[in-house]
Design goal:
Bacterial_rp_bL28; structural constituent of ribosome; ribosomal protein; mainly beta; two-stranded antiparallel sheet; Ribosomal_bL28; about 10% helix; about 60 residues; rod-shaped; Large ribosomal subunit protein bL28
């Protein structure tokens, strides 16, 4: 599973809880995109989450 190169956000784990309160494992996947970014002036492809893209923490190439 990919992690955000900027903030380090990745997958989170927890439980599905049914009406009868039985539990099974589940996973919340963060919205991560592969994006070409300028890193020190050169274009490089990085995995970046959507919240970092929206807040302009990354300069797109």
């Amino acid at each position: 599973m990919a992690k955000c190169s900027v903030c380090g956000k990745g997958a989170h784990f927890g439980n599905n809880v049914s009406h009868s309160h039985r539990r099974s494992n589940r996973m919340w996947k963060s919205n991560i995109k592969k994006v070409k970014c300028n890193v020190n002036g050169t274009p490089k492809s990085l995995y970046v989450c959507a919240s970092c893209l929206r807040s302009n923490k990354v300069e797109r190439a």
